[in-house]
Write a structure and sequence with these properties.
The chain is built from 11 helices and 20 strands. By secondary structure, it is an alpha/beta fold. The chain has helices at 8-15, 73-86, 126-129, 132-143, 156-159, 203-212, 226-231, 245-257, 270-279, 301-318, 336-350; strands at 4-6, 20-22, 26-28, 35-40, 46-52, 58-64, 96-101, 110-115, 118-123, 147-152, 165-171, 177-181, 184-188, 216-220, 237-242, 263-267, 284-289, 319-329, 354-360, 379-385.
Length: 387
């Protein structure tokens, strides 16, 4: 009775390549507590293994399609080792990157980020939490970190009936870690920073703006200044905006760390700043717009689209002739198609001829599976003003 039996609808979802099976699609619940369970189709035929979360709406997360496999310490070691090896190419450019991207690496609800000699993990389901020991052992064997920190403070753990906490799983992890990314240095805060300590998913886009930046640059929603630092390597001057004074102070520290003196850090609401700059007739040669997620639920999409269009419209109007705008959205509920449609609408209202130079997605260490849309959330675009 420790096998879960799923409905025809649940089976179709699995067959289509999605690992999630919802509570409503389980015809027979396992009797055991959270952990790994065998999964059967509605006829009783074994179809694989899944993480079982009894209290969650996502009750099963498939991790293995071969029912003959054994989910033991060796399985976790092999699967985690495969994900770690896939990131080897990144080591030459950066000492901080994502090692495991949950469903994107076939390890649903598991996040692991490397920060130099330390790892930060998130165990986001009850089924995964039950497998903590072999997961930590595999990470220690493949990465030999000085410490592993669990940032298990994400809200999703509440729905799994798990405590929200931050705790050491092995060794020790400092409060601050220096990240080196394409020669740019900045500080990550693994214990209390955003996400697991820094925004690692924008690494490739920061490298892009570093290559194309020129003239007078503006970085909106700058946070700790990671985009601004890259802009400052090529632009003559950079204005770094954020509404948080503590975030800007960290940005100043990062600028000093890189010996950069051409960044002006300004505490301001980006919407207000851009509106006032437009009225004053200001022009910028390079602009970055990387706001927080405006759409945190499907019901918020309409309002989020208004916000995204407003900020991008104002940025487009501030571009000097030939100026470049890199803009991004990390809202999962805002699809890539809606993102591009929003930019088209903003361009039409801007009165400018705006060229789409490049559409950007997620980097190698944040794999986006085509059959699992939830693995993809980041989208970006590089635009150019032709007049």
């Amino acid at each position: 009775m420790n096998a879960a039996r799923i409905s025809p609808k649940g089976l179709r979802r699995v067959a289509a390549g999605h690992p999630w099976i919802f509570r409503s699609d389980i015809e027979r619940r396992p009797t055991r507590e959270a952990g790994v369970v065998a999964v059967e189709d509605f006829r009783g035929k074994p179809i694989g293994w899944a993480l079982w979360s009894p209290a969650s709406e996502i009750s099963l997360r498939m991790i293995e399609r071969d029912p003959r496999s054994i989910i033991d310490a060796e399985w976790w070691d092999t699967t985690i080792g495969r994900a770690v090896a896939r990131r080897a190419v990144i080591r030459e450019r950066a000492n901080a990157y994502r090692l495991i991207h949950g469903e994107g690496d076939g390890l649903p609800s598991l996040i692991c980020d490397r920060y130099d000699r330390w790892l930060v993990v998130q165990l986001l389901s009850a089924g995964l939490e039950a497998e903590r020991a072999p997961i930590v052992a595999a990470l220690q064997r493949h990465c030999a970190p000085d410490g592993i920190l669990a940032r298990n403070d994400a809200a999703v753990r509440t729905r799994e009936r798990l405590p929200r906490e931050t705790s050491l799983l092995a060794g020790d992890v400092p409060r601050e870690i220096e990240v080196v990314e394409d020669g740019v240095r900045f500080i990550a805060a693994p214990w209390d920073g955003q996400k697991t300590g820094a925004f690692l998913d924008q690494r490739e886009n920061r490298a892009l703006v570093s290559r194309v930046a020129r003239g007078r640059a503006l970085d909106c929603f700058s946070y700790h200044g990671s985009f601004a630092l890259h802009l400052a390597r090529s632009a003559l001057s950079v204005t770094s905006l954020d509404i948080s004074a503590p975030a800007l102070e960290r940005g100043r520290e990062n600028a000093r760390r890189n010996g950069l003196t051409n960044i002006d850090f300004i505490e301001a609401d980006a919407f207000d700043f851009l509106r006032d700059a437009e009225r004053a007739g200001e022009r910028y040669d390079t602009i970055v717009v990387d706001p927080p997620a405006f759409a945190k639920s499907r019901s918020a999409i309409a309002g989020a689209l208004r916000g995204y269009k407003d900020i991008n419209l104002r940025a487009m109007r501030l571009l000097a002739p030939g100026g470049l705008l890199f803009t991004a959205s990390c809202s999962f509920h805002l699809s890539r198609a809606l993102f591009v449609e929003m930019l088209e609408s903003a361009a039409a209202d801007s009165g400018r001829r705006i060229v789409l130079r490049e559409i950007r997605g997620q980097p190698l260490d944040h794999p986006e599976l085509l059959t699992v849309p939830e693995t993809g959330y980041l989208k970006g675009a590089l635009l150019e003003a032709m007049d």
